[in-house]
Every structure is written in structure tokens, then in C-alpha cells.
């Protein structure tokens, strides 16, 4: 049986340390900047080296996400960037498209590779396809139900790790362009280092705010409710998921800390006593109080559960 892992996003070095100290087995960071002095907008090379040392001293892992969709003229910088990540001993890369995977296989062939959420893995044939290319873990699409995950696990190679998001913001759509900035300025905003946060609200849905995040990689639209699967930890683990992941791009480090602690407790209680595991309603109440957003089980169940305030 593959080891179970609790993973979380870390926006900066402080967030990395908080996440690992709170109970995460691994963290993933955004790595869209191909500069030689920075790993991402929030991590310098030196900070990531410190974070990796901090993680490895605790037998934990750090993954770097390369979610920028590269153009032809990005490949030289990408190759340099991969060599830099290899030198500082990141534990793996999370990729979103096959072109980047091909470059990784040539430049850093021994690097562990995951295919991320943007790879749109909806079925076991796609999972097997990437496995045959050397991918060790696939992040399954958030639109899948538990029964779909069971089917993927049943038909995918036994040593292929399956990762699923269990808590946090849910992406509705993504664009490689800065859509809002382009629209509001009536011109191409190009690539900027500056991050921008917006909230979209529809006239017919007052009070339901959809966060929008822009950086040099493009625009991400999030849903008005956050995913929450704390009540269904046993079902997730039994389905074959080997990594349970918390999404925290738009959240504070304090938010991440509290969410990790709750999921760590729920997971450990199931692992230590699976036959007598009981859902604690206090976990859900605590999660509701961390952030002022409604919670939902998303697409996982036959019938969606909305945990409204």
C-alpha cells in the first residue's frame, strides 16, 4: 500500500514552515517565474533552499509547481530553471502539460514528476498514459466523484500515486492571459510580476463572491464556495487517494495552519483506529469559523452537501 500524505500549498517561507509544523507531510509552492534569482514571486532561491533543508530535517517534502503554459521562447529559460531546481534538491515537480514534461525528461531525468490539476485527469487511461511517460503521481480533476476515483485506482498501475484536493478554493477556469487587466485597460497587459486579487459577484447572486487571481502566469477564477471533505476522510482514503491536498493560494498562513491541524487530527484518528473512526462535528464548526465562506463537498458525492453558516 502506498503511503498516505497530507499536502498543502505554501505561499512563502513562513507559510512553508507553518504548514510542515502544523502536520503537513509535504508542501507545494508556485513556481511560475523562470528567473535565475527567484523560484516564484514569494520565494528566492536561498529561501527555497532553507525551506527544503527545514523540510528534509523533518523527513518531509517540498514540491514545485510549474503551471505556466510555456511558449516556444520559454524553453531555454525553462531548462535553466529545471537545472536550478535539481541542484537545490526539490522533491518533485508538479506539471500541467506534456511539453514541459518532455523538457523535464531530457534535462532532469531523475526528477520525480507529478501531473497537476491543470492536466485534466478524468480517467484511468489518461493516468496510465502519463505513468508510461514516467510520471509518479497524478492529481485528479476536481469534477470527479468518489466512484470515479475508485475506478481509476482499480485500473491504474498499483504504484501510481493519486492525489486529490480535499479543502480550499475551487478553480472554475484558467487563462494564460491577464483577462481582467486586459479588459479594463483595453490592451494586452503582458506579463507582470505584480499579483492582483479581485472579487466577482453576479447581479442575481448577491453576497456570493468569486475570487479572481492574476499574476504573470495568467488569470484564475475561483468558485464562491470552498471545498470541504473533512466528514468523508475514510471514504477518500478507501477510494485509493494517496495524497490529500489543501488548496491555499488565496488564504493566509494562519488559515493554512488551522486547516492542516484539523485534517491531520481526522486523518490520524482514522489511521490509528479505522474501524471505530467517528466524525467530530467540532472539526466542521472550526473550519467554518476559520474563513467566512460557505463550504461544500463539490462533486465527490452523489448528492452535493453544502455546509452553509
CATH class of the largest domain: Alpha Beta
Number of domains: 2
Strand ordering within the main sheet: 1-2-3-4-5-6-7-13
Distance between the ends: 38 Å
> Which structural class best describes the helix and strand composition?
alpha/beta
Low-pLDDT stretches are 183-187
Secondary-structure arrangement, i.e. CATH architecture of the largest domain = Alpha-Beta Barrel
Overall average pLDDT: 86
Q: Name the CATH superfamily classification of the largest domain.
A: Aldolase class I
Q: Give the biggest beta sheet.
A: 8 strands, parallel, barrel
The Rg value, from CA coordinates, equals 19 Å
**CATH topology label of the largest domain:** TIM Barrel
Number of DSSP helices? 10
GO molecular function: peptidase activity
Family: Belongs to the peptidase U32 family.
InterPro entries: Peptidase_U32, RibuloseP-bd_barrel, RNA/ubiquinone_mod_enzymes
Protein name: U32 family peptidase
Structure, briefly:
This is U32 family peptidase. The chain is an alpha/beta fold and 309 residues long.
Describe this structure in words.
- This protein is an alpha/beta fold.
- It contains 10 helices and 15 strands.
- It has helices at 13-22, 45-57, 75-87, 98-107, 124-132, 146-155, 179-185, 233-239, 253-272, 281-290; strands at 5-9, 26-30, 61-66, 92-95, 113-115, 137-139, 161-168, 171-175, 196-200, 210-215, 218-222, 226-228, 243-247, 295-296, 306-307.
- The strands form 2 sheets. The protein has an 8-stranded parallel beta barrel with strand order 1-2-3-4-5-6-7-13, surrounded by 5 helices. A 4-stranded antiparallel sheet has the order 8-11-10-9, with no helix packed on it.
- It is globular and about 50 Å long.
- It starts with a strand and ends with a strand.
- Mean pLDDT is 86; it is low at 183-187.
- One of its GO terms (molecular function) is peptidase activity.
- It holds the Pfam family Peptidase_U32.
- This is U32 family peptidase.
Amino acid at each position: 500500500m502506498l503511503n498516505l500524505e497530507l499536502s498543502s500549498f505554501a505561499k512563502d517561507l513562513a507559510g512553508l514552515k507553518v504548514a510542515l509544523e502544523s502536520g503537513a507531510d509535504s508542501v507545494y509552492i508556485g513556481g511560475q517565474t523562470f528567473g535565475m534569482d527567484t523560484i516564484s514571486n514569494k520565494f528566492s532561491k536561498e529561501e527555497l533552499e532553507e525551506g527544503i533543508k527545514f523540510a528534509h530535517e523533518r523527513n518531509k517534502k517540498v514540491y514545485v509547481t510549474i503551471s505556466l503554459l510555456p511558449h516556444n521562447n520559454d524553453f531555454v529559460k525553462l531548462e535553466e530553471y529545471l537545472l536550478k531546481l535539481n541542484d537545490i534538491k526539490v522533491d518533485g515537480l508538479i506539471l500541467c502539460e506534456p511539453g514541459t514534461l518532455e523538457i523535464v525528461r531530457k534535462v532532469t531525468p531523475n526528477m520525480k514528476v507529478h501531473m497537476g490539476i491543470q492536466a485534466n485527469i478524468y480517467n484511468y487511461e489518461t493516468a496510465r498514459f502519463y505513468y508510461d511517460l514516467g510520471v509518479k503521481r497524478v492529481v485528479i480533476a476536481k469534477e470527479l466523484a468518489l466512484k470515479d476515483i475508485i475506478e481509476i485506482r482499480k485500473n491504474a498501475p498499483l504504484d501510481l500515486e493519486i492525489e486529490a484536493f480535499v479543502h480550499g478554493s475551487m478553480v472554475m477556469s484558467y487563462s494564460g492571459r491577464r483577462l481582467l487587466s486586459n479588459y479594463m485597460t483595453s490592451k494586452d497587459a503582458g506579463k507582470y510580476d505584480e499579483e492582483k486579487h479581485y472579487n466577482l459577484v453576479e447581479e442575481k447572486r448577491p453576497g456570493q463572491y468569486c475570487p479572481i487571481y492574476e499574476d504573470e502566469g495568467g488569470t484564475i477564477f475561483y468558485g464562491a464556495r470552498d471545498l470541504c471533505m473533512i466528514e468523508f476522510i475514510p471514504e477518500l482514503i478507501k477510494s485509493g487517494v494517496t495524497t490529500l491536498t489543501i488548496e491555499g493560494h488565496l488564504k493566509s498562513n494562519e488559515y493554512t495552519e488551522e486547516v492542516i491541524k484539523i485534517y491531520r487530527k481526522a486523518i490520524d484518528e482514522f489511521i490509528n483506529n479505522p474501524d471505530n473512526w467517528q466524525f467530530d462535528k467540532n472539526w466542521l464548526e472550526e473550519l467554518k469559523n476559520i474563513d467566512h465562506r460557505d463550504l461544500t463537498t463539490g462533486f465527490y458525492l452523489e448528492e452535493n452537501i453544502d455546509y452553509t453558516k
